[in-house]
């Protein structure tokens, strides 16, 4: 057989040529190309055009839908792992519709994911395909979260881990999207057990890599499936019912090299734009790039900034009093630390540590941050500087922030525990550090707090955190920096620059 670009993947469980030939792979591919048009414009083509499977995708269908000598599907469970933007949603939608339209009478197909919004991605794509296909649309009834085939009594629905009870289900096909984001293995196990009465059930997980652990602190269901698939593909474990195709780079590969990107991504230069890789590698934390673009598993505790990145930035003095600045404040009362960081509102911002309050090494357990001193420091800085905003995390400092706002200080509430805020703010600050778009006073306390930061990467995205709850390694100055930099860059884009008071109880 001629070599196929993008095939085989780095890890692939074995099937024989005979099993692939008598399987349904060709039928699935033909169904997708005939009845499943593209639903949005992309580098692969325009919405409404036929969805043309690439040769590597067709090979995937042949292996996945292989049949044994007795005519039954060889596989009952499958894990397909590929980097983002490799066409996972389109493939998943096509396979779901094939199972719905060509499956048994009274069939049940489900799109599953960690949350309902994620589950709707594959389902929503499938629904759009039906709406754009007159042949399919004439045979089904469409609902918000379901597609019904009256002629066969089959149905396709959306489920998520958020809805805990899944009793009474009898699926014959499940497309489980982004398995790595599952908070635990509950939904996967429920769906696997619910398929026991079906003749040819197929539970297909489609995912990128992620962090190895879940919320229980144990290996996630996705990582355990990956490990099992790796053992099956190597011959260490015999499990012919399990299928895995996993595209990835070598674990020790240089993530900056285009050759590495090409190895990990079967659609590189075709489904994925090479220029996008060149841009994103410069602004994406390494751990995030390795999971989403190279499909490599990472530990949850990964150093945020590469060694030497912060120290290598330009040394900048504390700015003059007339330069507009934003201050970031992250505080505690007792065992943790409290910090105040300034960032200038300039095209190339300057950062410096204004003050930090940390529990001394020999202090007793009753040590507390001097609240009056902290408030006085904020008031003094606002009096002598052109402070546009003071971005404050209100946790445990609600009263102080309200009193300072009542005095006319430009207090802005900033919840540093909110992923919606901290994920983009972390990425923005990382980008500035890596591109040299930030300078600082090389304060050792701020540098130490930055060194203590690890990246927490989950389905919500990467953001800085401590290595673990209760860790003695402080990161409050780093959090204050991220808050201040986020707001300073926001303020810089607003015209005119003027103080505002925006603290909300």
Mean pLDDT: 90
Strand order of the largest sheet: 1-9-2-8-7-3-6-5-4
Q: Count the helices. How many?
A: 16
| Percentage of residues in helical conformation | 25-40%
Strand content: 15-25%
- What integer value in Å does the Rg equal? 27 Å
Overall outline: elongated
Number of strands: 18
Largest sheet, described in full? 9 strands, mixed
Structural class: alpha/beta
Spatial gap, N to C terminus: 68 Å
Low-confidence stretches: 497-505
Q: How would you summarize the topology of this molecule?
A:
Blueprint: E1 11-12, H1 17-21, H2 25-35, H3 55-64, E2 77-81, H4 88-102, E3 108-113, H5 116-131, H6 134-137, E4 141-142, E5 146-149, E6 154-160, E7 173-177, H7 186-194, E8 202-207, H8 221-234, E9 242-246, H9 258-264, H10 274-283, H11 286-292, E10 302-303, E11 324-330, E12 338-344, E13 350-357, H12 371-384, E14 386-392, H13 398-406, E15 411-413, H14 419-435, E16 439-440, H15 444-451, E17 454-458, E18 461-465, H16 476-492
Parallel strand pairs: 2-8, 2-9, 3-6, 3-7, 7-8, 11-14, 13-16, 14-15
Antiparallel strand pairs: 1-9, 4-5, 5-6, 10-17, 11-12, 12-13, 17-18
Helix pairs in contact: 2-3, 4-5, 14-16
Provide a brief overview of the structure.
By secondary structure, the chain is an alpha/beta fold. It has helices spanning 17-21, 25-35, 55-64, 88-102, 116-131, 134-137, 186-194, 221-234, 258-264, 274-283, 286-292, 371-384, 398-406, 419-435, 444-451, 476-492, and strands spanning 11-12, 77-81, 108-113, 141-142, 146-149, 154-160, 173-177, 202-207, 242-246, 302-303, 324-330, 338-344, 350-357, 386-392, 411-413, 439-440, 454-458, 461-465. It contains 16 helices and 18 strands.
